[in-house]
Sequence to fold (246 residues):
Amino acid sequence: YQPIYSLKEKCVVSLEALVRLKDEKLGAIPPDEFIPLAEQNGTITQISEIVLEECCRFLAKHVLSNPSLGIRTIHVNIAAAQCLNRNLKESILPVLERYHVPTHMITLELTERTAIEAPKLMLWHMQEFGKIGMGFAMDDYGNGNSNCSYLIRFPFREIKIDKDMTWSYFENPTAKIVIENEIKTIQKLGLPLIMEGVEKKEQSDALEALGVDMIQGYYYGKPMPETECLRYIRRMHFAKEEYGKS
Fold:
């Protein structure tokens, strides 16, 4: 789980569930290597189902009984192959019901590529999930061809700016102008904005000055196993001034 930090509330409010793969012989295998293979051979759906199950178990065991943690949602990535299934809601909702997890505590993340794979079906999915209180976040916004037209076409509840866009903002004057305009547009639409790839204090401070809602990146926490993640969040609550400095 990687923390998503609220710049307004000064605490972790969400987590993103991330998959890591370790082989006895090969060691750690990066997601950008095994995820494309999983998409090709069809096992990506099984991986997504395992992730959702683990997230619901985590919420039921640690979060629902401990609201002081402040975790309101877990972001779960959803694959294009899953979105092609018209019974997507029927495959997800029973898992939440089994663990008594409220629908608003799971946010489904999808990329531009997933959204345009079958746009009419995706729009229908988003409307159906919206009826039961579950929202979608657009992941990797700014990566590829994603632009404001996607914000018009699909009822996203959150927008996540791709880490490469975040890094470009601090390295390229032209990119800075473009990204500032994108941020203002998203803010005017009233959509919460998450900037990914934040690794330094000065980056966090600059984004806070722009009115960015939330940030995600190594400065406010790397991806961690659940026990370490819980310990990290609790430590942050007791010593906010030290949070993000280690």
Notes: The longest helix spans residues 44-63. DSSP finds eleven helices and ten strands in the chain.
